[in-house]
Design a protein that fits this description.
With 224 residues, this protein is mainly α. The protein is 50% helix and 5% strand. The protein contains nine helices and four strands; from the N terminus they run E-H-E-H-E-E-H-H-H-H-H-H-H. The protein has a four-stranded mixed beta sheet, covered by helices on one side. A hairpin with a 5-residue loop joins strand 3 and strand 4. Helix 4 runs antiparallel to helix 5. The N and C termini lie far apart (55 Å). The model has no long low-confidence stretch (mean pLDDT 94).
């Protein structure tokens, strides 16, 4: 089978995992291009094609280009409607989109902000304990909502893995490497049983890779 297009990304990146997992379940092939961060994305050829100069990025037929992992993954899923990745109806597809947006904006955004805080990515190495606590509490609210939903079903939209499950499971994996230590994970048994179901699917298990969960949440770096 000929590749459906070229993908620039790195396999360890959450967003690239969305795309590779969608392609694997859909039975489609992607041409994953070699990529060196800070080199490939700064080359004139790359910037000319992808002016935002970030990954993942995709180029399909006739120069069709996309950026953003969820958008590329959704396009890949749409090429194989029989895969069930977007559900089985228009309503299912809307629910898939709902959970993707929920995962990225109500869980992962908080993971990233906590990580940036503790790694002192902000001006003057700023860290705020009160902001850290507030962000964690917002993520906690979202995880409680997800925990309740997953008490009712094995997957989020249909009775099989959809793109929503791929995205949510990747977001949970990322959170469990940053904000959710063993004690926090114990509060969400349904969420982590669900994560194991999705990440353990033989079609995408190798793409998810090892869990590499933290024992305790990441802590702020000490003041210099």
């Amino acid at each position: 089978m000929a590749p459906i297009g070229s993908l620039w990304g790195v396999p360890r990146q959450r967003q690239t995992k969305y795309i590779l997992s969608a392609a694997a379940i859909a039975g489609l092939e992607l041409d994953l291009k070699p990529f060196e961060f800070g080199v490939t994305n700064k080359s004139p050829e790359f910037v000319d094609k992808f002016p935002f100069a970030k990954i993942p990025t995709f180029e399909g037929e006739n120069g069709f280009v996309l950026l953003e992992g969820a958008s590329i993954a959704r396009y890949v899923a749409s090429l194989a409607p029989q895969s069930g990745l977007l559900g089985n109806s228009i309503k299912d597809a809307a629910l898939v989109d709902q959970w993707i947006h929920f995962a990225e904006h109500e869980i992962n955004a908080h993971t990233d902000l906590v990580w940036q805080l503790v790694e002192r990515f902000f001006p003057e190495d700023a860290y705020s304990e009160s902001i850290h606590k507030a962000v964690f509490e917002r993520q906690e609210r979202s995880l409680k909502f997800l925990e309740q939903k997953l008490s009712l079903r094995e997957f989020l939209v249909t009775d099989e893995i959809t793109l929503a499950d791929i995205v949510v499971a990747n977001v949970i994996q990322r959170a469990a490497r940053v904000t959710l230590g063993a004690a926090e994970r114990a509060l969400y048994p349904n969420v982590f049983a669900y994560y194991a179901r999705v990440a353990g699917d033989p079609r995408i298990k190798d793409i998810f890779g090892t869990a590499d969960f933290v024992e305790v949440p990441v802590a702020p770096k000490k003041d210099k």
